[in-house]
Amino acid sequence: MKFIATPVSRIIPLFIAVIIASCTPESDSLDAVRDFRPDDKYFKSGLVSLHFLTEVSPIPRVDSAYSEMIAHYNLPMDAEGAKDGTFIGASPRDAFDYSHVATITIRDEKIISVDYNEVNREGVGKEEDEAYCEEMSIAGITPAIAYPLMEKQLLEEQDLGAVDATTGATYSLYRFRFAVMVALMKANL
After folding, report:
1. pLDDT of residue 28
2. What is d(CA 44, CA 31) in angstroms, rounded to the nearest whole number?
3. How distant is the alpha carbon of residue 84 from its chain centre?
4. Where are the chain's structural domains?
5. Considering only CA atoms, which of 115, 113, 105 is closest in space to residue 82?
6. CATH number assigned to the domain covering 8-187
7. C-alpha triplet 175, 79, 88: angle, nearest 5°
8. Cβ–Cβ under 8 Å, residues 73 and 43
9. Tens-digit pLDDT profile for residues 112-142
10. Which of 76, 87, 103, 128 pairs as cysteine with 184 (C-beta 3.0–4.6 A)?
């Protein structure tokens, strides 16, 4: 029997970096959505855990965790019942010090604009980072290609669950979903 495992030497630094990032003031960006489920004192922790799982788990586990969280908390996947306005959703910083940020504008219960990027502490997004995009182009996809495709799908489908992953950017899809869900929660407060 062959056993394949992710080396602990790869997981521990990621775990430590996510924990440290989760303890910084930026982690309070999720405080605004506590009122989405005010009776559940673990709601924010659940969102932080979902973000952590996205960063360190295989896609089947990530997909399962998203499905469970959406069902358990009845998280918004569209703009039905949302207020008009512009809302920003952001994740805690990941192990590579990026926050996943979505800005959506809603009018008459429709998402009329969406902008997504993964932004470092210096305010540089992966989409504009030419060196990062060049490095990722080896995989056949870059943030400058993948993010606009996800944004376009959301505007066309008006359903976050209908946005499909672009080959080579599957984890980015779940980061996109996280940030947009946070923005939608704010729109529903």
Report:
1. 53
2. 7
3. 22
4. 8-187
5. 105
6. 3.90.1010.20
7. 50
8. yes
9. 999 999 999 999 999 998 888 888 888 888 9
10. 76
So what's the pLDDT on residue 176? 97
Q: Tell me phi and psi for residue 144, to 5 degrees.
A: -65, -20
| Distance set, CA 176 to CA 8, 38, 54, 170, 181 (Å) | 27, 24, 11, 10, 8
Q: How far is CA 88 from the centre of its chain?
A: 12
Residue 12: how many CB atoms within 10 A of its CB? 10
The secondary structure of 146-182 as a DSSP string is HHHHHHHHHHHH--GGGPPPPTT-HHHHHHHHHHHHH
| Structure-derived torsion over alpha carbons of residues 74, 53, 141, 10, reported in degrees to the nearest 10 | 180
* Beta-carbon-side half-sphere exposure of residue 187 (alpha carbons within 13 Å): 31
Mean pLDDT of the chain: 86
* Each residue's pLDDT tens digit, 41-96: 889 999 999 999 999 999 999 999 999 999 999 999 999 999 999 999 999 998 88
Give the span between the Cα atoms of 161 and 93, in whole angstroms: 23
